[in-house]
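Consider today's protein:

***
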Amino acid sequence: MNYQEILKRAELRKQELIAAEAAKRTDIERHPKNVPELEAAVKEAHGLGVKMTIHLASFVYTFEGSSGLDLYNKNVDVVLVGVEEGGAVIRGLGNYALWLNGKDCRVEMLNVAIECPKGYGIRICNRACAKLHNCDVRGCGKNGVYVYDGAGGIDSSNIHSNEWYGVYIEGRDSTFAVTSNRIHGNKEGDEVGFNDEGKRSKCTIAGNSAGTAPTVTSAASLVLVPTSAPASPPIAPPSFSAEYKRIALSQVESAPAPAENLVYETDSDSERW
């Protein structure tokens, strides 16, 4: 056995030991309370070989860099979970709030809001896979969800108030599902946008609705307006006999004429009118 074969066998043994160790490990959880801790958790997940669940606090995680929470070409399998519905916000001040790229990048999101006033909410490219459930994608300067040759989907979410489309899909290899969402208030349109309608066949688009959510009014602000009572049936005029009419007419003719210029004294203003 020569030296090269020894090195090759040693490397194979090393890979076997790494795989065996990874098989023994269970999923990992992290609870970041600020941006540096969240970035550290994502860095730890890179190349880990097991799924990491990241529990996000009710906090606005604001990223000042151009790529937001940068998952570009990261070998990760992470789940981002908001501990309270609508409480965790990932906000990007640059081009993206989240940027996923590459086939080894797999991200699931649950109960998370995404904002990016100057750019895209989440960009999913080059076979990266993102699955969003019960999320709120809002207030983005471009598309809320932008897919270019990406995979995964978004469901049961609220996608609204974005400057371009709520969801826009490009690339011949995109396989992205958009199902059972409320897509509304997006300036370019509330339908799912495609740069080529021929690519729509690879994507599942179903069960989405447009329009604003019903306004919930507190009981204290309710004003009760009484409804008008139903109109009463008209009262028929009374009928009088011919003898009654004759007696009444004779009484009118025999009554004395009223005195002229009568003045009635009163001390009440209401009685004057």
